[in-house]
Amino acid sequence: MPLEFRQVTKDSEFNEIVQCQCESYQQPLNSFFRLFRHDQSPRGFIELRDRQIREWKSDPTARWFKVVDTDIGDRVIGAAKWNVFTTNPYTDPQPVEADWWPEVLAMLFVHPEHRRRGAGRQLINWGVREADRLGLEAFIEATDDGKPAYEATGFTYMGTQYWESARRNPSEKWVELERYLQTPIHNYLMWRPKGGRFVEGETAIPWEK
């Protein structure tokens, strides 16, 4: 098989991963990623790469995975970052009420030239199997393109999150930012119960208790 699923273990792997990430989120444009990478210059690429390495190395819950095509020199064609929480990170008193999710898909991307080859499913399946092995729920924020793939693996649509930017008498800088982000933008909140089986009216929804 030309595609191989691998866990990321070295800093040096991130250069190609982040290059794939940037190209993937351009087709179609992912405006949320533009908030994540605000500087499109080569210097901004290095900052983005190094920031994600630091976050990965400092976060014991983070797991990065990649899919490579062995027919083209192990080129990275997709990657994902999962966060697995086996205990509640909000055990100390908090100033505001906050929900927490045992397993979170922080990001997943597949290069536009290599979509519909099964790379995305491999990246999703790791998290689904790990959640089932540990008896955990899972949560993601999906794009229009990703929503059907997550639904196929047991995630249920729970709502839409909208990001608006309209304001009265906006400055030129604000209008420029709106054009850059192409607002308004949205994503889909998706939850996977333990075992991945959701029955309307029967499955208990944690935040409605």
Q: What would you note in describing this structure?
A:
- The mean pLDDT is 89.
- Helices cover 31% and strands 25% of the residues.
- The chain has 209 residues and is of the alpha+beta class.
- Helix 1 (14-24) packs across helix 3 (42-58).
- It contains 6 helices and 7 strands.
- Strands 1-2-3-4 form a 4-stranded antiparallel β-sheet, sandwiched between helices. The protein has a 3-stranded antiparallel β-sheet with strand order 5-7-6.
Care to count the β-strands? 7
Q: Write the H/E string, N to C.
A: EHHHEEEHEHEHE
Oligomer: single chain
Helix content: 25-40%
The largest pleated sheet is described as: 4 strands, antiparallel
* Straight-line distance between termini: 46 Å
Shape from CA axes?
globular
Give average pLDDT, whole number: 89
Number of helices: 6
Low-confidence stretches: none
Structural class computed from helices and strand pairing: alpha+beta
Gyration radius from CA atoms, angstroms:
18 Å
Strand order across the largest sheet: 1-2-3-4
Key descriptive features of the protein:
single chain; 209 residues; alpha+beta; 4-stranded antiparallel sheet; 3-stranded antiparallel sheet; 6 helices; 31% helix; globular
List strands and helices in order, with pairings.
Elements: E1 3-7, H1 14-24, H2 31-36, H3 42-58, E2 62-69, E3 75-84, E4 103-110, H4 119-134, E5 138-142, H5 147-151, E6 156-163, H6 172-181, E7 185-192
Antiparallel strand pairs: 1-2, 2-3, 3-4, 5-7, 6-7
